[in-house]
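User: quick one
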Amino acid sequence: GDSVTQTKGPVTLSEGTSLTVNCSYETKQYPTLFWYVQYPGEGPQLLFKVPKANEKGSNRGFEATYDKGTTSFHLQKASVQESDSAVYYCVLGLQGGRALIFGTGTTVSVSP
Amino acid sequence: NSKVIQTPRYLVKGQGQKAKMRCIPEKGHPVVFWYQQNKNNEFKFLINFQNQEVLQQIDMTEKRFSAECPSNSPCSLEIQSSEAGDSALYLCASSLGAQDTQYFGPGTRLLVL
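Assistant: Done. Structure below.
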């Protein structure tokens, strides 16, 4: 079936260090891949999306490349800030207007 | 930033009581999704609409759950007889098309005592 697997958190970092959250997916379709971020007390917010294989998405210093060969979409940021503390979700969007498929979320905590 | 509006933000009900929550999608978005997010951050799709028509729904929503998106009124999700296991964050998302990016509201947090 269709599924998403991502780094199991929590991930604890210091400001200025780098972040990687691994994400792999399984589907027989041609997906659109998303990263969403959720802050406490809020709904998930779109960080960015990548609809095509071998393309990169980026926003606010975060980036990820849609690698169809390895079915991966790892999230990276070179230098995190305390405000990046949140839960990050790797998400699969499939054709036909179906519901999004969320990974289990990775809690990231950044200390000053 | 998303402009999906959800009310109320918090809802406390006793077991067996009705629980109703509302969603106003972003202006111009005809597609609305409802998800349930549990305390383990797992998302469960409940139902989606395009304009007033149901596109898809899971079996659970055919029993105690009901939802509608009437013309010129907020969409709503109602649980007829709340159970403790229904305690969760209920998220509404809207999109331009069924396959387009979904934008989420802040959610309604339901606590069933």
